[in-house]
Amino acid sequence: MENPSVKQMVVLYPVGGVGHVGPMTHLAKLFLDHGFDVTMVLVEPPIKSTDSGAGFIERLAASNPSITFHVLPPIPTPDLSISTKHPFLLILELMRQYNDSLESFLCSFPRERLHSLVIDLFCTHAIDVAAKVGVPVYKFFASGAGTLAVFTQLPALLAGRQTGLKELGDTPLEFLGVPPMPASHLVTSLLESPEDELCRTVIEILKRNAGTHGVLVNTFESLESLALQALRDPLCVPDQILPPVYSIGPLTGKIQGGTDKERHECLAWLDAQPERSVVFLCWGSKGALPKEQLVEIAVGLEHSGQRFLWVVRTPAGSDDDRKRYWEKRAETDLDALLPEGFLERTKGRGLVVKSWAPQVEVLGHPATGGFVTHCGWNSTLEAVAAGVPMLCWPLAAEQKMNKVFVTDGMRIGVEMDGYKAGFVKAEEMEAKVRLVLECEVGRELRKRAVELKKQAEAAMEDGGSSREAFVRFLSDVKNL
Fold first, then answer.
1. Does residue 54 register a pLDDT over 70?
2. Which positions make up the signal peptide (predicted)?
3. Bridge partners, residue 37, by sequence
């Protein structure tokens, strides 16, 4: 298949969002390091957002000139309606409608020039395009191996049920490779009846992983060894041969080099703080909490007496999850959102920044001693790579599952009581911040986190497990 005289090109095809394009950019750098050309194909979102991801792609392209970014020409989408479609269904349908444009783009290159097409979960319909063009297709799973193990086993579990899993509440479910998983912690769409359109569609998408040539996972062997072993076990899904799984992470680090010509103010502030004395609070690129919760957090932080760096985003104005996902956010007004006098009273030992902070640099700073996080997988890996213990406050998607992996599997975090009911009290915030920064429990969490940091570094070194897995992946593609 391969012509040694032709420099081959890898086509990466993520859905356009910070949490998807960011990890794909790290993956692109791996391919570049191995001598491949890389093109990242993107589509325009149906609705422009003004959240912290706005302008992200433009900045990313400017700071990564070795990667070619290609935006598929826009297509009319009159049948896509945020008032009737769940965001997951909307995005899947949008990406499906781009199949013809993707096929035309791939066919514009000689077949021998194309090495592989790497897609993410939302672009699963592109498997059909790869089959038509005759290019090997791989899934890049931007979450962890534990989530992949659960997702892989779920279709068989749901196939034998007439009703959804919601009725099971916190009943623990047993899956190969992961700690017992409360049913309530699964992705919300999978708790509905198997006949529900969203649940049915998600299951169909998960089953299609088997239609790829393999799955690249953003994790490393020693972090999730049991989950990775399960995915290689014939008992994982009886009567089905799963594609190979390659653990190639952690793919983390700063990726917006072109935007940070001036160092962010919060890093200079951290420079003046004692080592491991600051708790960092951030809920990802999409996470935003209601004003009542922000006030409660502020009270807890003030009463704790501890140092903090807090990223605050404008709360969503809509109660409708479908509309909230696309909602344009107003400028963050800290005076209107936080208790009167809070910023002045905590000046010096606390810093609140609007909308965004350079998370990788913050977590890697010596002054950072704890991380209040929504448990998105990118944030989880960044904390692992920095050796920072976590206070887990999941919001959506697979974040409750990640919380289980962090607290029960890795044992480098504790959960914030109250998040399941949708409200964490000031007393809990105060207690947990003190726990992670000044108590023996926090020291034990940090000790294990630092050990995982060393393992993460070893995995990405020459001869490390993740480097070897990527080399094995390249060899397998060559031998197809």
1. no
2. none
3. 9
- Beta-carbon count within 10 A of 448 CB: 15
CA distance 367 to 365: 5
Within 13 A of 259's CA, how many CA atoms are on the CB side?
A: 16
Phi-psi category of residue 177: left, alpha or beta, with phi > 0 → left and psi -120 to 50 → alpha: left
Confidence bin at 52 (pLDDT 50/70/90): very low
Confidence of residue 3 (pLDDT cuts 50, 70, 90): low
**Beta strand spans in 9-120 (E):** 9-13, 37-42, 68-71, 114-119
- Say if residue 104's pLDDT is above 80: yes
Q: Would residue 174 be called left, alpha or beta, if left means φ above 0 and alpha means ψ between -120 and 50 degrees? A: beta
User: Are 318 and 327 within 8 A, CB to CB?
Assistant: yes
Instruction: Spell out where 211-254 has E strands.
Output: 215-217, 245-247
Q: Which residues pair with 71 in a beta bridge?
A: 42
Task: Please name which of 221, 285, 191 lies closest in space to residue 460, comparing C-alpha atoms.
Answer: 221
What's the pLDDT score for residue 205? 82
b/e 389-428 (16+ beta carbons within 10 angstroms → b): bbbbbbbbbbbbbbbbbbbebbebbbbbebbeeeebbbeb
Strands 390-392 and 413-415: parallel
Sheet-wide strand order for 307-312: 350-354, 307-312, 278-282, 368-373, 390-392, 413-415
Beta strands in 206-318 (DSSP E): 215-217, 245-247, 278-282, 307-312
Instruction: Give the pLDDT of residue 51.
Output: 47
Token output for 398: 């697979």
- At residue 203, the pLDDT reads 81
Q: How far apart are the first and last CA of the chain?
A: 8
* C-alpha closest to that of 63 among 90, 25, 33, 97: 25
pLDDT bin (cut points 50, 70, 90) of residue 286 is: confident
Q: Where are the alpha helices (DSSP H) in 126-278?
A: 126-133, 145-159, 197-207, 225-231, 265-271
Task: Provide φ and ψ at 38, rounded to 5°.
Answer: -130, 130
Q: Which amino acid is present at 397? A: A
Type of residue numbered 263? R
Other C-beta atoms closer than 10 Å to the C-beta of 271 total 11
| Closest of 143, 381, 120, 406 to residue 252, by C-alpha | 381
